[in-house]
Amino acid sequence: MTAAGSPRALVHPRVRSAFREAVSDCGVVRQIERAFEDEGIDAAADEDRTWYAPGQRRGTFDRDWSNPAQVRRVLNVFEQILSWTIEGDYRDNLVRHLRRDGYDVSESGRIRGARLRRSSTSRLSS
Fold this sequence. Notes:
It is a single chain. By secondary structure, the protein is mostly helical. The chain has one domain. The chain is built from 6 helices and 2 strands; from the N terminus they run H-H-H-H-H-E-E-H. The chain has helices at 13-26, 29-38, 56-59, 68-84, 89-100, 114-125; strands spanning 103-105, 111-113. A hairpin with a 5-residue loop joins strand 1 (103-105) and strand 2 (111-113). Helix 1 (13-26) runs antiparallel to helix 5 and helix 4 packs antiparallel against helix 6. The mean pLDDT is 77.
C-alpha cells in the first residue's frame, strides 16, 4: 500500500507511458487489440470505448496496475510489443524503462521481475 492507502502500482507510470507511445508509433489498432485478446484481456475495458476512435491505442493501458495477475498478462503483451519495435535505440529505451522499474528483460524479450513476485508473495501471506 502507498502512503495514501491505495495499492502500489507494479509497473511505474513512466514504463506504461513508454509502451503507450510505442504502440502509438509502431502498432496498428488490430495488432494491439489482438495482443491484448491473446492474453485474455479486454482491450476496450470500458463499455463506452470504441476501438477505432482517436486515442484507442493509448486507452488500452487503463488497467489495475496493482493486481499481479493482470500485470503479468500485460507484461506478456509488452513482450509482444518489444518484438514489433525496431532493434536499436527505440527498443533499448523500452527495455531500459523496464529494468529501471526492477524487471529483467532477456535478449529474446521475456520480461521477469522480482517486484511482481514479491507482490504476489505478500498478498498470499496477508
